[in-house]
Write a structure and sequence with these properties.
This protein is of the alpha/beta class and about 300 residues long. Helices cover about 40% and strands about 25% of the residues.
Length: about 300
């Protein structure tokens, strides 16, 4: 067993297909399959089940992958640490961002980072929060700038901001008394709106996860008018009086015709830098994170999509 085999097995697990994994590794399918068979013979156990051309890890495969990722991460951290000692001006910034918050801030921060570290390469990966967490745990990326809801096993988070997720109700559909302020202090009974239509973020969104928690606690499945990936769109539909939605409080603005209510138990959506526990951060990576922290507030003024 060697490092090359560890890379091969993790590539198969991530692609779930021998052919795609071989393409990503720039080797032939037969060479990859031969390496897998040899390793399985050496171990004495199958690492994958082959179901409809999909490679699914066996129980032994899951154990192997858990340790393979740990070994590869230790090797990566060791290399980064040594490279940082030799020449902190060179290296690779391996970063994951979301299409909403991530893109907006990255376009401001990266030019400043590049001025300080012009010899650094960039490995930029875009995806929704759940994908980015998966990439962090597998070692595909070193850190991610994205939305945050709750602690994720195996990850550490530096939280920049948290905002309570509120129920946005068109005024004509309100079942509660209003204090006259656009954000209410008294929580809403979500079950009173079980007959109403909702516009919601797609299931890949953390905001949707929070909405699903609210619905589960209220004891009903919502009537979903439609789903989308942009919170400004769901917000606009609520402002038009068509349907209800959920919005982080920091994006709630005074608007005639919409009232915002907290929902108990209260849940928050935040923005954070996330990385695998124990990950070594180079001097350049720490500088990049400092830039994110420095530029975060100005970027957050316009409403942008939490993914």
């Amino acid at each position: 067993m060697d490092f090359k085999q560890l890379h091969y097995i993790t590539a198969i697990a991530e692609s779930q297909n021998i052919t795609r994994a071989a393409e990503n590794l720039f080797i032939s399918r037969s060479a990859l399959n031969y390496s897998l068979l040899n390793l399985e013979q050496e171990i004495g156990l199958p690492l994958f089940k082959r179901i409809n051309n999909t490679m699914i890890p066996t129980a032994a495969g899951k154990v192997f992958l858990e340790h393979a990722y740990q070994i590869l991460q230790i090797s990566k951290d060791c290399r980064k640490n040594l490279e940082d000692m030799v020449d902190c001006a060179r290296g690779t910034l391996s970063l994951g961002i979301t299409p909403g918050y991530g893109q907006a801030l990255f376009s401001v921060v990266f030019p400043e980072f590049y001025k300080a570290y012009p010899k650094y390469d960039l490995d930029l990966v875009e995806g929704n929060v759940k994908d980015l967490y998966s990439y962090l745990l597998s070692g595909r990326i070193d850190f991610a700038w994205s939305g945050f809801h709750c602690e994720e096993a195996g990850l550490e988070h530096t939280i920049f901001h948290k905002s309570e997720v509120l129920l946005a109700v068109p005024e004509a559909k309100c079942r509660h008394r209003s204090s006259g302020h656009y954000i209410q202090t008294e929580p809403a009974d979500l079950s009173l709106y079980r007959e109403e239509r909702f516009v919601l973020m797609k299931s890949s969104s953390l905001i949707r996860d929070i909405a699903n928690l609210y619905f589960e606690r209220a004891g009903f499945t919502p009537h979903i008018l439609f789903e989308c990936s942009k919170i400004d769109m769901t917000h606009a539909i609520a402002q038009e009086g068509i349907a209800l939605t959920f919005v982080p409080q920091n994006l709630c603005l005074p608007h005639r015709g919409v009232v915002y209510y907290p929902v108990e138990p209260r849940e928050s959506f935040g923005i954070a830098i996330s990385f695998r526990k124990g990950t070594y951060l180079t001097t350049a990576e720490q500088y990049f994170i400092d830039l994110l922290r420095r530029h975060y507030i100005p970027i957050m003024i316009p409403p942008i999509s939490p993914d």
